[in-house]
Each structure stands twice: as structure tokens, then as C-alpha cells.
Design goal:
236 residues, 4 helices, rod-shaped, disulfide bond, mitochondrion inner membrane, mitochondrion, MICOS complex subunit MIC19 isoform X7, myristate
């Protein structure tokens, strides 16, 4: 009497289980890689924008500090000149004294009155000069800020356009989300998600075929040509 061998079906069942497990692990790895790649690109873009923003803020702060120092120097110099003029008035030996707000009594102290008037003229001239320089500094600061702002905006647009070209969209996103949820809910029984995994793999393979078809079409395939891909025949 011959013994019936059962090793064949068991071996096939074990092989199928192992294959499903391998597919599940491969799917997990692919999903994790896609998520990590997308996150890395977003972080890189954010870091570049933050760096450019800090550089712009630093340049703006430096310009404001330089402008403030220039204004202070001008004010100090102007006050020193006025103090010298007041000191000169207080030292005049003329009866009744003099003031910067009224003409000097030339009939009392002609040399000193003339000197005082000349000094007052110089101070007014310097004051006008400082005001003109201050206006120029403010104009330059405004122009510099405008240019740096435009440069920053242009750089930000270039970075955004560059990353948009390399933007990665997950394939079969709905199925991917369902698979991730299934794995979370069945951490000890991942084989229960094998049906979703198989459906996801078919979706990914179909997307690859469509991508290959798009590449072939972009290379100049004529209309009404027929292209046969594994499991897919298309005519356009």
C-alpha cells in the first residue's frame, strides 16, 4: 500500500506564506522610503528659506546701525559747534552781551561781532550739509532694503521652483493609507493585509507601465501606433 505524500501542498503553502511576508516587508520599506524622502525635501527647503531670511535680517540690522551711528555723529558735531558759539558769546567783553538769535551789535565790538556772525554762518551751512547727508543715507538705506528684499524674494521663488520640479507624489496614495492603517491595526497579523498589499502592488505596476508609455510617447511615437507592455496593450 502506497503512502500519500502531503509534503507538496504544505511546501506550497509555506512558500506562499513566505512570499506574502516578503511582499509585505518590501511594501513597508517602499512606503517608509517615500515618506522619508518627502520629509527630507521639505526640511531642506525650510532650512534654506530660514537661512536666507536670517541673512536678510542681518543685513537690514547692519544698515540701520550704520545709519544710526552716522546720525549720532552728525548731531554730536552740530552740538559741539553750537556749544563753541555759545562759549564765544559768553566770553565777549561787550556791554549788554550777545545772543545767537539776534544780530551782533557791531558798533560795540566790530571784530568779535563779525567773528560771531561768520561762526553762525558756518554752523548753519554745516547743519544744512548734515541734513542733506542724512537724507541721502536714508534714501540709500531704503534702496538697499528694497534691493535685498527683491533678491530674497527672487531666491525664494527659485528655491520653490527647483523643489517643485523634484516634487514627489506618492503612487496610489489611497491604497497606501489603507495599508498603513491595516498594519497599525494588525501588528501581530500582517498577513491579513496581504489582499491590500497585492492590490497596491498591482496599482504601482500599472503606474510604472503608464510612466513607461508616457516616456515612449514623449520620444516621438506616431499617432495610431500600438505599444504592447506586459499585461497592457494601448493604441493612440
Amino acid at each position: 500500500m502506497k503512502e500519500t505524500s502531503t509534503s507538496g501542498p504544505k511546501s506550497q503553502r509555506y512558500s506562499g506564506t513566505y512570499g506574502a511576508s516578503v511582499s509585505d516587508e518590501e511594501l513597508k520599506r517602499r512606503v517608509a522610503e517615500e515618506l522619508a524622502l518627502e520629509q527630507a525635501k521639505k526640511e531642506s527647503e525650510n532650512q534654506k528659506r530660514l537661512k536666507q531670511g536670517k541673512e536678510l535680517d542681518g543685513e537690514k540690522t547692519l544698515t540701520n546701525e550704520q545709519l544710526t551711528r552716522a546720525i549720532l555723529r552728525e548731531r554730536i558735531s552740530n552740538e559741539e559747534e553750537r556749544a563753541k558759539a555759545k562759549h564765544l558769546v559768553s566770553d565777549l567783553p561787550c556791554r549788554g552781551g550777545l545772543s545767537l538769535s539776534s544780530p551782533a551789535p557791531a558798533f560795540l565790538c566790530p571784530p568779535l561781532a563779525k567773528q560771531l556772525e561768520e561762526k553762525d554762518r558756518v554752523i548753519k551751512k554745516q547743519d544744512a550739509f548734515y541734513k542733506e547727508q542724512l537724507a541721502r543715507l536714508e534714501e540709500r538705506s531704503s534702496e538697499f532694503y528694497k534691493v535685498t528684499t527683491e533678491q530674497y524674494q527672487k531666491a525664494a521663488e527659485e528655491v520653490e521652483a527647483k523643489f517643485k520640479r523634484y516634487e514627489c507624489h506618492p503612487v496610489c496614495a489611497d491604497l497606501q493609507a489603507q495599508i498603513l492603517q491595516c498594519y497599525r491595526q494588525n501588528t501581530q497579523q500582517t498577513l491579513s493585509c496581504s489582499a491590500l498589499a497585492s492590490q497596491y502592488m498591482r496599482c504601482v505596476n500599472q503606474a510604472k507601465q503608464l510612466e513607461r508609455l508616457s516616456q515612449i510617447k514623449s520620444q516621438g511615437v506616431r499617432i495610431n501606433d500600438t505599444v504592447a507592455l506586459p499585461g497592457l496593450t494601448l493604441t493612440w
